[in-house]
C-alpha cells in the first residue's frame, strides 16, 4: 500500500467513524495512537479490521480500501461532505489546488452572468 493510498484509506476511516483527527480515530477504533502511527510507518492497515469496520458501518470494502464507490450507508451530510472535500484537497499538489480554484471561480462567474442575463430578459419582457 503506498503512502498516498494509506492516507486515503485513513481519510475514509475518519469519515466512517466521524473522527476529525488521528487521535480521535484511534479512540474510535479502540487502538492506541502508537498503533495508528505504526500503521503509517509500515504503510499497512490490518485487513481484518477493515472487514469488521465495513460490516459495522454498512459500506463496501471497495469504497473503504479503494474509494471505488460511495458508502452504502446514508448520504454524507453537509459537514461530512465539506470535511471530505477539504481532506481530499489537502492531498493534492498546489498546482492542482490552483486549477480547482480557477474552475470554481469560472463556474461562479458563469452563474453570475446567467443571473444577470435572466434579470435582463425579465426586464425586457416586462
Biggest sheet, in brief? Answer: none
For the record, the CATH architecture of the largest domain stands as Orthogonal Bundle
CATH class of the largest domain: Mainly Alpha
Query: Order of helices and strands, N to C?
Result: HHHHHHH
Give helix % range: over 70%
- What is the fold named in CATH at topology level of the largest domain? 434 Repressor (Amino-terminal Domain)
The best one-word shape is: elongated
**Rounded average pLDDT:** 85
Question: Structural class, from helix and strand content?
Answer: mainly alpha
Q: Could you tell me the strand content as a percent range?
A: under 5%
Radius of gyration: 20 Å
E-strand count: 0
- Tell me the domain tally: 2
CATH superfamily of the largest domain: lambda repressor-like DNA-binding domains
The poorly predicted ranges are: 71-75
Helical segment count: 7
Ends: how far apart?
63 Å
Pfam families: Phage_CI_repr
Protein name: Helix-turn-helix domain containing protein
Domain HTH cro/C1-type: 23-64
Question: How would you portray this structure in words?
Answer:
- By secondary structure, the protein is mostly helical.
- The protein folds into 2 domains: 89 residues, lambda repressor-like DNA-binding domains (434 Repressor (Amino-terminal Domain), Orthogonal Bundle); 34 residues.
- The chain is 75% helix and 0% strand.
- It contains 7 helices and no strands.
- α1 runs antiparallel to α6.
- The longest helix is centred in the C-terminal third of the chain and has 32 residues.
- It is elongated, with a radius of gyration of 20 Å.
- It starts with a helix and ends with a helix.
- About 4% of the residues have low confidence.
